[in-house]
Amino acid sequence: MGMQSNRLGTLYVSEKNRLSRMIARIFSNRNDVEDIVHDAFIRFITARLGGIDQEKAYIARIAQNLAIDAQRKAKKHPSADIDLFEMIDPSPSPEQVVADRQALAITLSALEKLPGKTRRAFEMHRVGDMTITQIASELGISSSNAGRHVIDGYQLLRDALRRHGL
């Protein structure tokens, strides 16, 4: 991970707030904005693109597409907890920058340590927006096993973050 992780951590810290402001113009709920930005980075990382010259533009495009998809889903299923007037703070505290960088490093490390099928199922669900049935078919396993792999992925990443107080 080493050099690649440092480069990705620097990209995350440098782009997170810009992406959050951009996505807030499309999708106003702060928690959803944070989820979309996080998902954009996971999608970017799991794409294993390596030598892309336009990384900032590429990650912005991923984030925009995720926000537009989330907005479409929200319009189909409106939620009472959406606050259209919530604003994103454009200037995080130094502590928040450190916490964000640490959370990304922990997430990357935990993703790399997930067992093969668990990682693939998690990525298909979280990043690929695939259903459990689609994941089961793709991996050639039962739906219950696919569901277990997805849940295990979420739990292992959550536990890794919690172990570090995040």
Rounded average pLDDT: 76
Number of strands: 0
Low-confidence stretches: 80-89
- The total domain count is 2
Q: Let me know the largest β-sheet.
A: none
How far is the N terminus from the C terminus? 21 Å
Which shape, going by the Cα principal axes? globular
Count of helix runs: 7
Beta-strand content: under 5%
Tell me the radius of gyration. Answer: 16 Å
Helix percent reads over 70%
Order of helices and strands: HHHHHHH
The helix/strand class is mainly alpha
Question: Which keywords apply here?
Answer:
sigma factor activity; mainly alpha; RNA_pol_sigma-70_dom; Sigma-70 family RNA polymerase sigma factor; 2 domains; Arc Repressor Mutant, subunit A; 166 residues; 73% helix; 0% strand; transcription regulation
Helix-strand layout with pairing:
Layout (H helix, E strand, L loop, with lengths): L1 H23 L5 H17 L8 H22 L17 H20 L2 H11 L5 H8 L3 H21 L3
Written account of the structure:
The protein has about 170 residues and is mostly helical. The protein folds into 2 domains: about 1-90, no CATH class; about 115-165, Arc Repressor Mutant, subunit A, CATH 1.10.10. Helix content is about 75%, strand content about 0%. Helix 1 runs antiparallel to helix 2 (about 30-45) and helix 6 (about 130-140) crosses helix 7 (about 145-165).
